[in-house]
Amino acid sequence: MLSLTVLVIGWAVIAALLQSRYLPSPAEVARLFVVELMSGDLLRNVGITLARVAAAAVIAFVTGTAIGIFLGRHRDADRFFDGWLIFFLNVPALITIVLCYLWIGLNEAAAITAVALNKIPNVAVTLREGARAVDPHYDEMARVFRFDRLKILRHVVLPQLEPYLAAAARSGLALIWKIVLVVELIGRSSGVGFAIELNFQNFEIGTIFVYALTFMAVIQAIDLLVLQPWERHATRWRLEA
Amino acid sequence: MVRISVAAKDFGDRQVLRAIDFTLGDGEVLAIVGRSGAGKTTLLRLIAGLDRAFSGGIDVEGPIGMVFQEPRLLPWRRTIENVALALPGSPRQPENLRRAADALAQVGLAGEGDTFPRALSGGMARRVALARALVVGPRLMLLDEPFASLDAATADQLRQMVAEIWRQHRVSVVLVTHDVREAMTLADRIIRLEGQPATIAADVTFGTPPDGRNELWRRETLSRLVGTS
Predict the structure, then answer these.
(1) Which residues are registered as beta bridge partners of B176?
(2) Which helix (H) or strand (E) is A8 found in, with range?
(3) From A156, A162, A237, residue closest to B118, measured CB to CB
(4) Using CA atoms, how far apart are residues B89 and B104, in angstroms rounded to an integer?
(5) Which of B145, B164, B139 is nearest to B67 (CA)?
(6) Over the range B139-165, which residues count as b (16 or more CB within 10 Å of their CB) and which as e?
(7) Rounded to the nearest 5°, which phi and psi values hold at B25?
(8) What predicted TM-score, i.e. pTM, was given to this entire model?
């Protein structure tokens, strides 16, 4: 909290010294925040972007986790697909985005697919690491007591993957929202990315600050209020007697 | 009735087991003894169905309950859920939870259901593993050195408890141990594995021991087991 205050004071001092339209003061940004808030644009755009982040994150997590667990637990498949995974990890985000818009069209499905495709290899690699570390002793126990596949996944495998899921979720959220902004900037007419593009055209640097800061605050809040408590809950068995 | 017939079990070029054939009656308690590396645990894994790469056949009717060398409790599930998980269906079904609570009570752990395994002592964790093997209503119970790495007093206490439970449930038991004395206290019959590959070097049935398990009886059994009489 103190370091944040120092940052804002520093910003105010520099802005006052420069007196430049390229660096609006905190007070000016706060005024613009209220303007944007009252017009409803801010909430609408942030909401739309958040919905896209959520949709892309869910798709990327479910798909990436499935791929990661499969590869981590099947050595032959892992050897075969390892090269593919490295290849897709290294495809630049921009190329995936442009190709999705070209192949699927300038629509919502293409936007969300592009973001998810960017994230899936990261999730898969993290979860593959986790699946490789799964303790075979528990698998044997599950086989002796005839657990079905769903029971093994839910009670034996996924709990061991929770630290990896949490790591993928937190680093994933940070990556996904940045890509969503690019996707919006290139091919959507709503959302935070679009708003930033619009204000860039009009040289509205203050409003760009408003959008950027608001969205960063929202992502921080999700991390603090959703992801961190979930991580604590998932690992409580390590601490609770 | 349990029929075990292992014609051959190899790990690559290494021959591990040869011509292991025996049947086990209902309620019979069999101990398999032998040196470390004699193939005892391998044989137990074949019986449990954990390893199907061998020639021969294992014929077991009804559910199997197994107690591993380590308790192998899932640390992220509460004690009662660890037991209930062995039953078909969800571990949170009331019927499964009730049966799990019964099994925990049988091993003297009523009221410990809500703790996580981390909080259990080594002896308590073994008892939970035993409850998990019991809850399925097994026709056959397999135990792999279940009292190893426990202190002597705790191990003795647990031996008395399992002997009592086996008697009550009339379950057939295969107990793997390297401790001949443990085998003689707990089992009705002892099979000794020996050799490379291992075969049955001795198969001794001695029924109910005389009162007090006196020294003469002990010496006789031992000599039959090592094949010197």
Answers:
(1) B32, B144
(2) helix A2-18
(3) A237
(4) 19
(5) B145
(6) bbbbbbbbbeebeeebbeebbebbeeb
(7) -75, 165
(8) 0.79
Q: What is the dihedral of CA A83, A87, A89, A90, to 10 degrees?
A: 140
End-to-end CA, chain B: 30
Beta bridge partner(s), residue B22: B4
Q: Which residue has tokens 């054939």?
A: B21
Distance from CA of A87 to the nearest CA of B (A): 36
Instruction: Concatenate the DSSP letters of all residues of chain B into one string.
Output: -EEEEEEEEEETTEEEEEEEEEEE-TT-EEEEE--TTSSHHHHHHHHHTS---SEEEEEE-S-EEEE-SS----TTS-HHHHHHTTSSS-TTSHHHHHHHHHHHHHTT-TT-TTS-GGGS-HHHHHHHHHHHHHHT--SEEEEESTTTTS-HHHHHHHHHHHHHHHHHHT-EEEEE-S-HHHHHHH-SEEEEEETTTBEEEEEEE--SPPGGG-HHHHHHHHHHHHT--
CA distance B166 to chain A (A): 19
Q: What is the pLDDT of residues B75-118, one digit of tens each?
A: 999 999 999 999 998 999 999 999 999 999 999 999 889 999 99
**Predicted confidence (pLDDT) at residue B214 exceeds the cutoff of 80:** no
Asked if A237 lies within 8 A of B75 by C-beta distance, the reply is yes
What are B155-206's pLDDT values in tens digits? Answer: 999 999 999 898 888 899 999 998 888 888 888 899 999 988 989 988 888 7
Question: CB–CB of A118/A65 below 8 Å?
Answer: no
| Side chain identity at residue A238, one-letter code | R
Q: How far apart are CA A172 and CA B33, in angstroms?
A: 54
- Is B115 within 8 Å of chain A by CB? yes
CA angle (B169 as vertex; B83, B158 as ends), nearest 5: 65
